[in-house]
Amino acid sequence: MSQDILYEIRDERFRSLIAGSARLEELYTGCRWAEGPVWFSDLNCLIWSDIPNERMLRWVPDGGVSVFRSPSNYVNGNTRDRQGRLISCEHGGRRVTRTEPDGKITVLADSYQGKRLNSPNDVVVASDGSIWFTDPSYGIKSDYEGHKSEPEQETRNVYRIDAQSGVVEAMVTDFIQPNGLAFTSDEKQLYIADSGSADHDVPRHIRAFDVIDGKKLANSRYFCSIDNGIPDGFRFDISGNLWSSAADGVHCFAPDGTLLGKIKVPQTVSNLTFGGQKKNRLFITATQSLYSIYTTTNGAQYP
Question: Which residues does the annotation say bind substrate (predicted)?
Fold first, then answer.
């Protein structure tokens, strides 16, 4: 794929973030809906979800792909906590879980105010150990990505799990379908995608919030819109640029919300994460495949 086809330059600042000789690599294909990539630098591998096939896969450089977990209980989004443990959102169990070093699964949240969650989708962990996750209804709308069920929650919320008490609290309740989320590197802001436009005539945007004392969100505001498809998963680089999934690839936005450019991907992108030993390799889950491409910036996520 030539550079002219691979990249769409909207702002000259984008040129400093991309490597002219880099190529989009398809590392694996054969998924039904690839999601939730998470990089393990200590194990030198990437783990991601194949939701409809109810499995999680592992990619190792020069080692190919193997099954990490099957059945997976329809796991969608994944991340790691500050101790390096895997945190996952299960559509099937309608819960957020933690995988312990011995492989045991610990349930962190499966209900709110006595009612079952919808289908936890994406998750991030703050430096204080609190876990923040989105809870749209995708996993209970049909049997394709979970188990068809009626929602018990009246709204689709963004939640916080307190690290000490384990108490689950709703942080935002006015999203149509909250999806991807990520903290800025200083954790002063939390950005959240709304993918409700897949089913409703509503904006396809990402909103920003100020984080108050690590426990509350305030000052909701529009950050950017996706002009092709919907915003799903996204991540920040060390300069504060936001790299988002979209129907035509990966869209990169400057901290001021300007669309800098796109990395064109042949399939609809669901999510992405930075990885590799220098966190300068962008791993992309897109419908049936796992892709990667090197950039000239580095991811800001931890650990």
Answer: 121, 145
